[in-house]
Amino acid sequence: MTTLELYTKGASVWVPDPDAVWASAQLLQDYRPGEKQLLLQLAEGNEVHYPVGCPSDLPPLGNPDILEGENDLTALSFLHEPAVLHNLRVRFLDYSSIYTYCGIVLVAINPYEQLPIYGEEVIDAYSGQDMTDMEPHIFSVAEEAYRTMTREEKNQSIIISGESGSGKTVSAKFTMRYFAVVGGAAQQTSVEEKVLASNPIMESIGNAKTTRNDNSSRFGKYIEIGFGRKGDIIGANMRTYLLEKSRVVFQASAERNYHIFYQLCASRELPEMRSLKLDAPEHFRYTNQGGEMQIPGTDDMTDLERSRNALTTLGVQPDQQMELFRILSAVLHLGNVNIQASGRSSDRSYIDAEDRSLAVFSKLLGVEGSQMAHWLCHRRLAIGGEMLVKPMSGQQALEARDALAKHIYGQLFTWTVQRLNSALRAQRAQAKSFIGVLDIYGFETFERNSFEQFCINYANEKLQQQFNRHVFHLEQEEYVREELAWNRIEFSDNQQCITLIEGQLGMFDLLDEECRMPKGTDESWVRKLYDQHLTSKPHPHFRKPRMSNSAFIVLHFADTVQYECVGFLDKNRDTVFEELINILKASQSELVAELFHQQGNGPSVANGSVRSGKRATREHKLTVGVQFRQSLQMLMDTLNSTTPHYVRCIKPNDLKEPFMFDPKRTVQQLRACGVLETIRISAAGYPSRWTYEEFFSRYRVLLRGPQNQLPAQARQALPHIIPDPDQYCFGKTKVFFRAGQVALLERLRAERLRVAAVIIQSHVKGWLARLRYTRIFWAAVTIQRYSRGTLARRLALTLRYTKAALVIQKTFRMAVVRQMFVMIRQATLTIQAFTRGTLARRRYRQLVAERAAVMLQARVRGWLAKREYRRVRSAVVFTQCCVRRRAARRELLKLKTEARSVERYRELNKGMEVKLMQLQLRADQEARESAALRETLNAEREAATAEREALRAMTQKLESQKQEKPPPCPVISEKEAEERRRAEEKATQEILRLTQELQALQKEKDNVYKEKEDLSARLLEQEETQKECVHQAVSQSSATLRAELDEEKTKYQGLLREFTRLEQRYDNLREMSLLTERTKGHRRSDSAQSLSLEPLSPSPTALSPQSLTPLSWSPFASAFPSPEEVDCRGDQARARSLCSAAVTAMKAALKKHANDVEMTALWLKNICLLHDLLTQHSPKRALDSDEQVPLTADLSDLIRTLSDLCIQAYQQLLSITETRLQNIIVPALLESETIAGLSSSGVKLGVSRKRAGSDPRPVGGDAPTMASVLRELGALHTALTRQLVPQSLIEQAFRKLTYLICASALNNLLLRKDVCSWSRGIQIRYNVSLLEEWLRSRGVQAGGAVATLEPLIQAVQLLQVGKKTEADAKAIVQTCTALSSQKIVKILTLYTPHSDLDERVTLNFIRTVQALLKGRSDKHPPQLLMDLRRVFPVTFPDLPPPILTAEELVIPDSLKISFLRKA
Prior knowledge:
Blueprint: E1 12-17, E2 21-27, E3 37-42, E4 47-51, H1 81-94, E5 99-102, E6 105-109, H2 120-126, H3 138-152, E7 156-161, H4 168-182, H5 191-206, E8 207-208, E9 216-217, E10 220-227, E11 233-241, H6 259-266, H7 300-313, H8 318-335, E12 339-342, E13 348-351, H9 356-365, H10 369-376, E14 378-383, E15 386-391, H11 394-424, E16 433-439, H12 451-481, H13 495-502, H14 507-516, H15 522-536, E17 542-543, E18 551-555, E19 560-564, H16 568-573, E20 575-577, H17 578-585, H18 590-601, E21 609-611, H19 615-619, H20 624-640, E22 643-650, H21 663-673, H22 675-684, E23 688-691, H23 692-699, H24 710-721, E24 728-730, E25 734-737, H25 741-899, H26 902-964, H27 969-1074, E26 1083-1085, E27 1090-1092, H28 1115-1119, H29 1121-1128, H30 1132-1152, H31 1157-1176, H32 1179-1183, H33 1196-1222, H34 1225-1231, H35 1266-1282, H36 1287-1309, H37 1318-1338, H38 1350-1360, H39 1366-1375, H40 1381-1390, H41 1403-1414
Helix pairs in contact: 3-4, 4-5, 5-6, 5-7, 5-11, 6-7, 8-9, 8-11, 12-13, 12-20, 12-22, 14-15, 17-18, 25-27, 26-27, 27-33, 29-30, 30-31, 30-33, 31-33, 31-35, 33-35, 33-36, 34-36, 34-37, 36-38, 37-38, 39-41, 40-41
C-alpha cells in the first residue's frame, strides 16, 4: 500500500489559504492516479476543486484525531508544515499550553499574560523527572540539561532564540531561576542570588521598547553558570554580543531608548539624584525622538530601585553607583549640546560658551568644558609629518557628538558586564562543569534593514547550521544504536550563504577593505558586491534589487532580506576621535578615567575603534564586523564543545494580545527558527518509531502467531503489509517507519477491525432478526386480541360518551339560562334597592326637619313651663314650710310627752341599734370614699371658700338692699333658692370633674408603669444582644489570633528548619576542618565534673535502637536527678552547666544520626522527656503542684532551646522519610501496575521518542511499588510507636507525609498525559486505596492523614467518570470540591485515551465545565500545582513524664559508660 491510497473519500487534507495559511478540507470522492483535480469540502461547507498536476501536487494529509494536541510534533504521523501549525494552534488556543516539543526543540509561544506555571511548586514537580514523562515546559529543558551535566559531567548549553517580543528574555530568566533553586550555592555568599540579580541590571542598560516588544533585548548574551562537584552553583560568567549602540542617539517612532535613561529621569526628584540636573525625558534629544516616554504597566522609578538593589547585591558600592548614574546622565546632557554652523558655506561649527548642557556634561564627567567644545567642532589631521587642526561642518560635528555618546555608553556597558563577571566569578573552587544559557536575537527582517540586521541574520545563519548538524547527528546516532542499514540523509545546508558573508572576498571582507579606503563610501562597497557576486562569479544567494543601486538582497535560510547600504561603513568603523578620548582620560572622575584607560591598554577596542591623526595606527584597529565574527566564532566553539538544548520562542501576534494566534506570523517564525527544518530532517529518515512490544500490542490484529517471538514475527509480517522495504526498517529494539507509514498501518488496522466487525455484526444481526421475527409473530397475535377488545371497549366508550354529552349539553344549557335569570334578577333587585333607598333618604330628611322644629317648640314651651313651675313651686314650698313648722311644733310637744315614758324609750332603742349599725357601716363606707376624695377636694376648697365669700358678700349686699327696700317675700326666697341650687350644682360638677381627672391620672400612672416595664424588658433584651455580640466578637478575634498564631508557628518552624540546615552545613564544614585535631571516643573531664560526649569510635558492637527504648533506658530521665541534686545544694551554675551539656549532647546526637529513623525517633522522645521534666520542675509549674519541688536555677532559656530542639528533631525525622519517599512516590502510585494487564490493554498512537541523555526507567522488579511506600511508612510508624511517642504527634507526622504523597502524585499527574487515562485511573485508585487501608489499620486517620488524600482521590475519580453530557459536567463540578478549577480543566485537557474504546474529551465539554465552575465559589489558591513545601504547624502534647525508678533502668553495655553505677 502506498500513500496515494490514503486519498479516499472522507480523508482530511490541508489546502493553502490566504488568511489562515492552511485550511482543513475533506475529500468528497476517492482519488485515482491521473485525475487532474480533487473535489474537496472546506470546513465552512463550501465545495471546491483542487487542481492536481502530478501526485506530488496532492495536498498534505491530515493526522488522525487521536494525535490532535500532541505534545511532541515529531510524534505526528504526517510531518509537514500544516500539521505543525494546526497542532500548535490547538495546544495554544484550546488547551492554553504555550510549550510544545519538536524533537529536541522546545517551542515556546508567548502568551502575553502572566501564567501561574512558574512557582516553586512547579520547579519541585519537574526536579528529578524525565523529560519525556512530563508536559513540555522550560523547566523540563533546564532539568534535562542539569541532569545530563551531573550524570555525564559534560558542559551543557541552552540556546534560546526568537525574534523580538517572543519571550526570549523571560525564558532565560526562568531557566536561571530553575538552576538557582535546584542547585543552591555551596558558599554562603549566595551566588544564586547574584546570578538572578544580574537580570534587572542587564535589562536596564541593555533592553529598550521597540514596536514589537516593550522589553526587547538589544544585545546577545551567553551566561555560563558554573557548578561544583555536588551540583551546586559556585559562580557564573557573562559574554555579550553586538550591543545596538545606535539606539543611544536615535530611536524610531513609537520606540524608546534604553530603560536606564527613563528610570533616571523618573527618579530625578530623589535627594541623591538632584545633582545630576535631570529633567523629564521629553526635554532630552536622546529620549524624545520616538515619542514614547512611558510603557503601560511599568514604573521606571521602581525599576531603578530594583536595579540599585541588584547592584548592591553584586557588591557595587553606592558611591560607585552614583558614578555610574553620573556618566549616564552626562550622555543625556551631551545630546542637548547645541552645535551651530558658521562660515559662508556652513563649513565650520561652534558651541556657545554659555551652553548649559555642555557645562552640566563637563561637570558630571569632570572634564574641561572649553576643550570638549573645541574638539567637538574640530579634528586633527597628520599631513607630511605635521599635525593640522581642521574645523568641521555642523553635520560632521553632530556626528562626532553622537559617536562620542555611543562610545561612552558602549564602554560603560562593557565595564558593567566586567563588574558583574567579577562579582559572579567563583572565589574558592574551580567550576567542574557549566551550563550556558544563550539569549540571542532571532532572525530579523524589517522594511528597512541595516548593518545590525545583517550581523544578527549572519549569527542566526551560523546557529542554524550548528542546529541542523546537531539534529542530523542525533538522528544518525539513533540509527547506529539500533544497527539499521540506512542511507545518508540529505538535507539542505546553508553553508553557501555563510560563505557568501564570511568567506574569502565575501561581504565582510569587502566591507573591511572599503573601510580601510580613505574615501570609501557605502555606494562604492555595493558596487564591489555587484561586481564580485553578480558579474564575475554569480552567487545563488545574492541578488540586486531592480529599482535600487544602493541595496542588495541576500537569500537567507529563513527568508529573503533586502539591506540598505547606507550607514554600513560608519557602523562598521564605529570610530571616535582620539582628542575627545584623551579629554575623557584626563577626567577627575575615577570611573570615567578607568573606562577609557582600559580601552587604551588593550590591543583593540571592544566596542569600536579610536580615530587618531596617524593613519598607520588607525589601520590596525579592528572593525565591528571583525570583532563580531571573532566573538561569534568563540561562541560557536563553545556551543560545539557542549551538549546543546534548544528553545525556540514564537511571537503569536504583533498586537501583544493575550492568547491571540496569527498563523501568518507564526509560520514565518517557524520557518525562521528552524522548527520546520527539524521536521524535514526527521521526515527524511524514519520519524515514527515503535518498540516491538508496542507494535505488537497496537497492530496484533495484522500479525499472526503467539507473542513470544516479536522481532521475528514482525519481520515476517511487515513485508506482506508494506511491500516497499524502503518504507520501514528493523532495529534491535524498535521498528522504524518513514513518514505516513503509521497512517497506512492505522488504515489497515481499521480495515481489519471493520471486516471483523462486519462478520460479527452479520451473525449477531441474523440472530437478532430471528429473535425479532419470533417476537413480532407473538406480538401480532397478542396485538390482534387486544385490538379487538380495544375496539369493543372503544364502541362502548363511544356510546357512553354520547350519552354523557347529551347530559352535559342539557345541564350546560340549563346552567346558562339559569345564570342569565339570576343575573337579571340580581340587576332588578339592585335597581329597586337603590330607588327605595333614595326615596327613604328623602323621607328621612323631611322627618328630621319636622322633628327639629317640634323639638325647638318643645324646648321653648318647656322652658316657659319650667319657669312658671319654679315660681309656683317656690310659693308652695314656702307655704308648706310654714304649715309643717306648725305641725312639727305640735309633734314635738307630743314626742316630749312620750319620751318621758320608759317603755316607749326601749321600743325606740331597739330600732335605733339596727339603724345605728347600718349607719355605722354606711359611715365607714362614706368615710373611705370621702377620704379618697378629701385630698382631691382640698385644692377646690379654697376656691369654694372664696366663692362662698363672694356669695356671702353678695348676700349681704342683697340683704342690705333688702333692708333699704325690701322686695316681696316670694321673689326674694326664690332668688336665694336659685343661687343655692346653682352653687350645689357647680360643686357637684367640680367633684365629678376632679373624679374624672383622678381617674385619668390613674390611667396615666398605669400607662407609665406599663411603659416602664416595656422599657425594662427592652433594656434586658438589648443587654442580652450586646452580650451575644461581644461574645461573637471575642470568638472571632480569638479565631483570628489563633490563625495568626498558627501562621507564626508555621513561619517559625520553617525558619527553624532553615536554621537547622545552615547549622548542619556549618558544623559539617567545621568537623571536616577539625577532624584531624579531635580525639575519638568518650572521655570524662574531671575538672569540669561533667560528662563530655563526643563521636564514638567505630565499634563492632553497634548500638541497637531496639534496646534504647524510653522504658529500658532513658539517659536524661536517669541523669535528671543529678542537676536536681546539684540545684538543691544551691549550685545553680553547675546545674545550668549540666543541662547545657545535655542539650549540646543531644544536638550532636541528632547530627550524627541525621539519616537514621530509629535513632532520630529515640532522641526525639528523649528531648521531649527532658523538656517535660524541666518544665514540670520550673518555678511557675511547681507552684501549682504540691508534689513537685521547683528548681532554684533559671532554666527558661534552656527550656526554649529544648522546645526548638524538639521541633528540629521532629522535622529531621520527617525529612529522612520524605527523602526516602521522594523518588518512589510517583513510580509507585502513578506507574506501578498493581492490577496486572490493565494498562497494557491499549497503546496510544504516536509514542513520543526518547531523548538523548534521558535516564532509563527501571523495569520489572526494580521499579518501586506501593509496597515500597508502605515499607517506608511502616518503618517510621514502628520507630515512633517503639519509643512510645504520643499518638497525636504520630498523627501529625503522617498527615504531613500523606500530604507530601498526595501533592507529589497530583502535581506529576497534572503534568503528564500518559497517566491521564481511564485504565491508569483505576490503577492509581487501587494504589491509593491500599494506602488508605494501611493508614486506617495503624489508627492514624483521626489526625487528617486520610483527608489530605482527597484531592488525589477526586482527580482519579475525574479520570473514571463519564465526560460527554451536561449531566456529567454538573456531576464533575459537584463531586470535585477538593480540586480547583484550574486542576479540573487541566486534567480534562490532558485526558488521553489509551484504546479505541475511549474518546478524547471534547472542547465543548471542557467549555461547559468551565462555565459551571465560574458559578462555584472557588476558595482554592490560584496556583495549578500543590505546594510541596507547605509547612504544617506541629503541636507537642503536654504530657507528664513517666515516673521511673532506678530498678527499672537498664544501661546498655554498648554505650561504654560502665562507670555509672546505680545508687
